[in-house]
Design a protein that fits this description.
The complex is a heterodimer of chains A (about 350) and B (about 325). By secondary structure, chain A is α/β, with parallel strands linked by helices. Chain A has twelve helices and twelve strands. In chain A, the strands form three sheets. In chain A, strands 2-9-8-12-10-11 form a six-stranded mixed sheet. Chain A has a four-stranded parallel sheet with strand order 5-4-3-7, with helices on both faces. Chain A has a two-stranded antiparallel sheet with strand order 1-6. In chain A, helix 4 packs across helix 5 (about 100-115) and helix 5 packs across helix 7. Chain A starts with a strand and ends with a helix. Helix content of chain B is about 60%, strand content about 0%. Chain B contains 15 helices and two strands. Chain B has a single domain, classed as Ammonium transporter fold (Orthogonal Bundle). With about 325 residues, chain B is mainly α. The chains are: A alpha/beta (about 350), B mainly alpha (about 325).
Chain lengths: ~350, ~325
């Protein structure tokens, strides 16, 4: 039974155009520069370069060098560059991959060298994306993401079930690492998708990190009815009210929305869709049942600590129940119990 | 001015409303053939029952101070289901009483839709079966001339239904092949076997209902019919008569699939269906009444949470191990 949720992808409008560059505000400092590394630099040097270049992996916002350091200890590791976007409206990493696949591959090579990975893979949105890979690249295997949200988490799950160790890094982080190694550039820019039904133009923008969200949104020609702006994802992003917040390296999209679907919440009907949607083995309906009891049994709240708040369960719930909220409450109860030593 | 919002910003199109709407439409389609044959009397029976259901729902909402929403169409499903499970020639007050019992005793006191442990339609039908068995099991003869005014009693001749004949230990004088078309004595909505089957397949394909409980229900009933035939005939003939007569097939498509009252794990749902199917046949064999499906379903409803617990006990309460 496939897990996750099938969502309608709306990536074409923003992929149609080339990536545009938003001029950096004058108040931001100039990007840092270093000497470029030799072609055959030692693994430790590449790691060190990832650290001083302050590269952040856009997949989860973790600094790249920390991630690679963790990977060093794993044996027979497969390094996977994630060159797609899980979010149905975002196409930032996909656009970076289409624009310069060679650079992403060079970054993947450097990262694989730094963490001594035995094999390298490129995970792309679909089979058609592979035509952007340069022809002479042997030794890199290709994966497809599948059409269910959250694709990267599901891909990881598939690997874990096979019992193989795999490390996942973002395509944009790969490109930034390639720049840091060959050109000696610190990570100073990122590609962000502007989309949503509140934006009349959907576009990928190359933005200097630290630019206020307002400047990026201007490229999307906002409609006056826009009432909600979400950063990070069109599914589970954080809504912001202060548009002078800066763009970070982990910002993959800025979504402008006119309004939100408002649904009445009904009691659980027991359809079991949430259980099938969860990529982390949580059973939300049972957690909901347990939370209605006076004393929830912590042993029945299993896997709640693994929740990644992808909102898959809340999307599919026909009763409109906010299940992620329930899982979060359950996690607190479980933590409280463990601290008491029961 | 920007507002704060809570994710998810997306919602799937599949809602409780769309789920109940497809069930309701499927049941309404069962009324088409009786209306073509007998005029608008079936519609009046169904309408009275549905009106009672809505009235009871509104009454309860007023008492409990809840908002009444027009997207809440599940009372209509309950009302219609009861009308379809009763013969067309019943006096109009009978489906109304059954529906009132279903809504006021079996559904609303437990917290309304989504919280009822027993299937309200089955409970309502069981209530009137126990109180007025003679009315519930008296069927008019569809092969003889009959006329039904919209409200009064009508003129018709009585006949025993195939399940009554089976109960008495005889072979019904109608071929199973002909029973598929629904032209035999039985409850209003349960004789159109082909239409019910088509509705079931449609509901399963659109994911409005899950097929496993239905399949296990029919499988268990067929197995019981084949192993212990009530009449002197080959096992296959016995299976055909048992499955096609009475409300068994209707219950397997519309009542057993109700997600609220059935277990929530797949193995437990299979067990639930099989248990209900086997109990239906036990009631047909040993019970006083010719129909046992609704009684069996209520028993299975009561056991449903237990079946879920048993599945988790076998699987381990910790669930499937996660990656980390």
């Amino acid at each position: 039974m496939p897990r996750g949720v099938k969502l309608d992808l709306e990536k074409e409008p923003s992929l149609k155009e080339q990536v545009i560059t938003i001029p950096a505000p004058k108040t931001l400092p100039a990007p840092k520069m270093f000497a470029s590394l030799r072609k055959k630099a030692a693994a430790a040097k590449v790691l060190e370069r990832a650290r001083i270049a302050e590269i952040v992996d856009e997949l989860d916002g973790e600094p790249l060098y920390k991630k690679l350091k963790r990977f060093v200890s794993a044996d027979a590791l497969t390094l996977v560059a994630v060159c797609f976007d899980e979010d149905p409206m975002t196409s930032a990493t996909q656009a970076v991959f289409r624009e310069n696949a060679a650079k992403v591959l060079a970054g993947l090579d450097a990262a694989a060298h730094a963490c001594r990975a035995v094999s390298k893979k490129i995970a792309a949105a679909s089979r058609e994306e592979f035509r952007y890979v340069p022809k002479n690249r042997a030794g890199v295997e290709l994966l497809t993401a599948g059409d269910r949200y959250p694709a990267a988490v599901l891909l990881r799950r598939k690997w874990m079930e096979k019992g193989k160790s795999a490390g996942f890094i973002g395509g944009q982080a790969c490109a930034a690492l390639a720049d840091a190694v060959t050109r000696g550039l610190a990570q100073n820019e990122t590609v962000v998708t502007v989309a949503g039904n509140g934006a009349s133009r959907w576009v990928n923008c190359r933005v200097r990190i630290g630019t206020p969200v307002r400047d990026v949104l201007a490229a999307g020609k906002l409609l006056p009815e826009t009432s909600v702006v979400a950063v990070g994802s069109s599914v589970n992003g954080r809504s912001i009210t202060n548009l002078s917040e800066p763009v970070t390296a982990a910002t993959r999209c800025i979504i402008a929305m006119k309004g939100l679907p408002r649904r009445k919440t009904l009691p659980c009907v027991g359809c079991g869709r949430c259980e099938r949607a969860c990529p982390r083995g949580i059973i939300p309906w049972m957690i909901l049942q347990q939370l209605e009891l006076e004393e929830p049994n912590p042993f029945r709240l299993f896997n709640v600590e693994h929740c990644i708040q992808c909102e898959s369960c809340s999307i599919v719930c026909p009763s409109g129940i906010h299940l992620v909220d329930a899982v979060r409450r359950a996690e607190k109860i479980k933590e409280g119990r463990e601290n008491k030593g029961c | 001015m920007l507002k704060n919002a809570v994710p998810p910003y997306l919602k799937s199109e599949f809602t409780v409303f769309s789920m109940t709407r497809s069930t309701l439409l499927a049941q309404l389609s069962l009324l088409v053939v009786p209306i073509l044959y007998y005029g608008f009397r079936p519609l009046v029976v169904a309408g009275a029952s549905m009106l009672t259901a809505v009235a009871c729902h509104v009454l309860f909402c007023l008492i409990r101070g809840k908002n009444i929403s027009i997207t809440e169409i599940s009372p209509l499903v309950t009302g219609l289901m009861i009308a379809l499970l009763l013969p067309m020639n019943v006096p109009l007050w009978l489906p109304c009483i059954a529906t009132a019992f279903a809504m006021l005793v079996a559904r609303e006191p437990f917290g309304g839709f989504g919280r009822n442990p027993f299937n309200p339609a089955a409970a309502g039908l069981v209530f009137v079966t126990l109180c007025w068995p003679r009315l519930v099991f008296s069927y008019f003869d569809p092969s003889r001339a009959s006329s039904f005014p919209l409200l009064g009693a009508g003129t018709y001749s009585m006949v025993s239904s195939p399940s009554q004949v089976l109960k008495q230990g005889f072979k019904p004088d109608i071929l199973p092949r002909e029973m598929l078309w629904g032209n035999f004595a039985g409850p209003l909505g349960t004789t159109g076997i082909l239409i019910i089957g088509a509705c079931g397949i449609l509901l399963f394909l659109t994911r409005a209902a899950k097929p496993e409980a239905t399949l296990c229900f029919l499988g268990a009933a067929a197995l019981a019919a084949a192993l212990f035939p009530r009449i002197l005939c080959s096992p296959l003939t016995s299976v055909k008569y048992e499955l096609l007569s009475g409300s068994l097939f209707f219950c397997s498509v519309f009542l057993v699939t109700d997600p609220v009252t059935s277990p929530r794990t797949l193995p437990a749902r299979c067990l639930y269906g099989a248990f209900a199917g086997a109990m239906t046949m036990v009631f047909r064999w040993l019970g006083t009444y010719e129909q046992g499906a609704c009684f069996a379903l209520l028993l299975a409803n009561a056991a449903a949470p237990l079946m879920d617990s048993a599945v988790f006990r076998l699987r381990g309460w910790e669930g499937k191990p996660n990656e980390e």
